[in-house]
Amino acid sequence: MPEDTRARQRTGAGVGLLLALVLAAVLLIAFPDDDGEQDADDCIPHTVASWSADDRLTTEFARYGDDATRADDWTGGDGTHSVRLPDGRMLWLFSDTYLGQVHGPPNPVGESYAWRDTTAPLVRNSAVVMRDGRLQTTLPAPLFPDPGPNQWRWPVAARVEPRAPGSSEQVLRVLLWVRTAGSAPWIYGVPTATEVATLSLPDLRVESVVKVLDQQQVPDPSRRVLFGTTLVKEDGWTYVFGGDDGQAASRPASSAYVARVPEGGLGDPAAWEYWDGSAWTARARPSAVLGDGQRTGVGSAFSVVRQESTYVLFTMASGTKGLTTVTSYWSCSPTGPWRGPTKDFSPTLPPGQVAAYNPQTHPELSDDGRLVLSYDVNWLEPTGAAAQLNRNVSLYRPRFVTLRLASKG
Q1: Is 197 helix (H, G, I), strand (E, B) or coil?
Q2: Cβ atoms within 10 A of the Cβ of 166, count?
Q3: In this structure, are residues 97 and 123 in contact, taking their beta carbons and an 8 Å threshold?
């Protein structure tokens, strides 16, 4: 077992702690309205009108995680991306994941929480299959093996698309973040590359993994961009958003970027185009669409959806509110300008030193004007995190809310 993996198991530090700390201090973009800008006629401001806890989905992940009939399935994780498969199943993708079994309650210290043994395996990624709203099985984990010594893969956004442009055969494409073990301040890994995995359908067999953007030649790790935190499909294109790790280098905020790929081309590096500030270009030198590296920016985990002709971005709020509060921004284009923040909301959190992070929308579960959004939960303090996560397994599982958006025009 690599030394960095052992260290992660000792500390319990996964992508969750990274994002919780990153998002805690992030400052988000707030462009003023410009009445003279020529926006699309049907692009209007949107904000969160109301929200409520989605207990059904939250309870379903608790039920599945607590099921002790198997010893090699998902019992907790973060990342929480989803994709609808052609046969109606949902595939849930997670980053750092606990497997093993869950026991109790009560737990060994007498608390009324289900608990996990301290020897439970921690793997870098996993995938769980849902059918008709019920989680059924965990694919062999990790689904995406480590690319090299002291490196790992975190799955992010995914979509079903033609194997190649114009093909009648569909495949599943999953965006992957590659990170390499590093020393402080890169204790959660140095950003290394963006990859795309191709999985066959319906059997979900990993056929290939292709590197689409190698960042190892960028000398400053805080300037390296990884794509795939969220994607939006529109008019034959897939818009893929990403971010840098400015926070790790003590810059006040990270920046957001966007690329686009024609439908069927996610697995072809030559098909990717990057926004350079004024045009789409094949040169992999993207320009930030959110954030100036000083006053404004985003966290490394955010989500974007398209509501009619308006793009809505969800991320954690600025400052200390970012530990508990989700906010949103809107734009008429993936390249911006992004306006906001609009109305905040603070979803329910369990008691203790915990933080919310990684707000992700799930349009495939949304209907009747409602939008489903998940958020991850983790123990805030790195010291003793593994013990806390094992003592109370509910601390490292996604929670869900249902939103209703309203226009402000």
Answers
A1: strand
A2: 9
A3: yes
Give φ, ψ of 15 to 5 degrees. Answer: -60, -25
Give the span between the Cα atoms of 285 and 350, in whole angstroms. 42
Q: By C-alpha distance, which of 388, 390, 327 is closest to 356? A: 327
Nearest CA-CA partner of 175 in 194, 192, 199, 152 = 194
Output the CA angle 371-376-382, nearest 5 degrees: 160
CB 280 within 8 A of CB 233: no
**Angle at the Cα of 374 (from 409 to 33), degrees rounded to 5?**
25
Task: Provide the token pair at 117.
Answer: 């043994």
Position 41, amino acid? D
Q: pLDDT tens digit string along 317-352?
A: 766 677 898 988 899 999 999 887 788 899 999 888
Taking CA atoms, 122 is separated from 72, 92, 103, 233, 253, in Å, by 11, 17, 17, 33, 30
CA dist., res. 174 & res. 285, Å (int):
22
Tell whether the model's pLDDT for residue 40 goes beyond 60.
Answer: no
Residue 370 corresponds to which tokens in the numbers above? Answer: 């409602």
Which helix or strand (DSSP H or E) is residue 11 part of? Answer: helix 3-11
Residue type, 291: G
User: Using 50, 70 and 90 to split pLDDT, how confident is the model at 77?
Assistant: very high
CB neighbourhood size of 131 (10 A): 13
What single letter denotes the amino acid at residue 62?
Answer: A
From residue 229, give the alpha-carbon distance in Å to each of 49, 64, 274. 25, 25, 15
**SS3 label, residue 225:** coil
The residues, ordered by sequence, that sit 6+ positions from 398 with a Cβ below 8 Å of its Cβ are: 58, 61, 78, 80, 374, 375, 376, 377
Model pTM score: 0.89
Residue 92 and residue 81 in contact, taking contact as beta carbons nearer than 8 Å: yes
Domains with residue ranges and CATH for the chain? 3-407 (2.115.10)
H helices within 191-301, ranges in order? none
Q: Which residues pair with 274 in a beta bridge?
A: 259, 281
Greater pLDDT, 273 or 113 = 273
State the number of CA atoms in the 13 A half-sphere of 234 facing the CB: 17
